[in-house]
């Protein structure tokens, strides 16, 4: 019973709400659509061109570049006074060190060897000329052969021979870049054979030599001033002289020299060799 009444009441409320809504709608004129009676002219005009927009996308990259520029700046300044030119110090070269050499030339008998004619000489040597000092030394050996005068041709059995060994000090002084002069002197050991030693005999003298090899007779009279040596005789002596050398290259020199070689016992005997030759440094 109650359910039916409630339904009736609900239906009545719904109808009332619907009537109110219809009335409100009829009274709202703003929502009414009105049609215009004016005709809008329409003309056929060409379509407007299409406007195209270009879209640019900008990208910014940062690039680091290294660059080196050289700037030359020229300035004119007054030059200072030129400094005095000082010649470089050059060490003086006195010699080429150790060397050996050979030479030869003429041999001139002197003093108590003076009865013989000139002959020839052959010499070999070894020595040292210090690079930084002018005084050096030299050792040499020489062999000399002399000629006989006519009056001795039939008296002596052979031509005289002389051998000498010389140990010398040598003073060498450069004169030009390749030229030097030198002096030398020292001790001599001498040996000789087939030698008539004594004062120089006159060319027309006639002499004979005793069979014992020691007595010399002139004009039938023995003369003790003369001695004949038919076998090797030796004694000490001295020598001294000088020369000049010319550099032909880094290690070779040409030389010319002369000196007196003398040996002394009971008489003075000597000779003068004048020779030239070559030396090689090593």
Give the tags.
single chain, 282 residues, mainly beta, eight-stranded antiparallel beta barrel, three-stranded antiparallel β-sheet
Average predicted confidence as pLDDT: 77
> Residue ranges: pLDDT <50 for 5 or more in a row?
1-5, 28-33
The arrangement of helices and strands along the chain is HEEEEEEEEEEEEE
Biggest beta-sheet profile:
8 strands, antiparallel, barrel
> Mind telling me the C-alpha Rg?
68 Å
Span between termini: 159 Å
Approximate shape = rod-shaped
Number of helices: 1
Structural class: mainly beta
**What does the oligomeric state look like here?**
single chain
The overall strand count is: 13
Helix proportion: under 10%
Strand content: 35-45%
Order of strands across the widest beta sheet?
A: 1-2-3-4-5-11-12-13
Please characterize this protein's 3D structure.
With 282 residues, the chain is mainly beta. It has one helix at 2-27; strands at residues 97-111, 117-129, 135-147, 161-174, 179-193, 195-197, 207-209, 216-218, 221-222, 227-229, 233-247, 252-264, 268-281.
Short note summarizing the structure:
This protein is mainly β and 282 residues long. 9% of the residues lie in helices and 45% in strands.
Q: Can you lay out the helices and strands and say which pair or pack?
A:
Elements: H1 2-27, E1 97-111, E2 117-129, E3 135-147, E4 161-174, E5 179-193, E6 195-197, E7 207-209, E8 216-218, E9 221-222, E10 227-229, E11 233-247, E12 252-264, E13 268-281
Antiparallel strand pairs: 1-2, 1-13, 2-3, 3-4, 4-5, 5-11, 6-10, 7-8, 8-9, 11-12, 12-13
């Amino acid at each position: 019973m109650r359910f039916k009444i409630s339904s009736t009441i609900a239906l009545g409320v719904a109808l009332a709400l619907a009537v109110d809504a219809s009335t409100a709608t009829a009274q709202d004129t703003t929502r009414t659509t009105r049609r215009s009676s004016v005709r809008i002219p329409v003309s056929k005009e060409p379509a407007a061109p299409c406007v195209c927009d270009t879209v640019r996308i900008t990208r910014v990259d940062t690039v680091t570049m290294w660059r080196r520029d050289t700037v030359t700046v020229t300035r004119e300044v007054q030059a200072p006074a030129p400094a005095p030119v000082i010649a470089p110090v050059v060490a003086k070269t006195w010699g080429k060190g150790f060397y050996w050499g050979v030479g030869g030339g003429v041999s001139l008998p002197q003093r108590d060897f003076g009865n013989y004619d000139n002959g020839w000489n052959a010499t070999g040597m070894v020595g040292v000329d210090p690079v930084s000092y002018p005084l050096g030394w030299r050792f040499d050996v020489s062999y000399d052969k002399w000629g006989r005068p006519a009056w001795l041709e039939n008296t002596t059995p052979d031509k005289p021979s002389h051998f000498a060994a010389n140990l010398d000090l040598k003073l060498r002084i450069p004169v030009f870049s390749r030229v030097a002069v030198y002096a030398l002197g020292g001790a001599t050991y001498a040996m000789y054979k087939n030698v008539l030693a004594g004062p120089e005999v006159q060319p027309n003298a006639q002499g004979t030599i005793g069979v014992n090899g020691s007595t010399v007779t002139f004009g039938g009279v023995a003369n003790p001033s003369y001695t004949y040596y038919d076998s090797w005789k030796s004694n000490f002596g001295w020598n001294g002289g000088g020369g000049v050398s010319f550099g032909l290259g880094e290690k070779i020199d040409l030389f010319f020299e002369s000196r007196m070689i003398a040996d002394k016992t009971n008489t003075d005997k000597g000779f003068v060799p004048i020779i030239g030759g070559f030396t090689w440094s090593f």
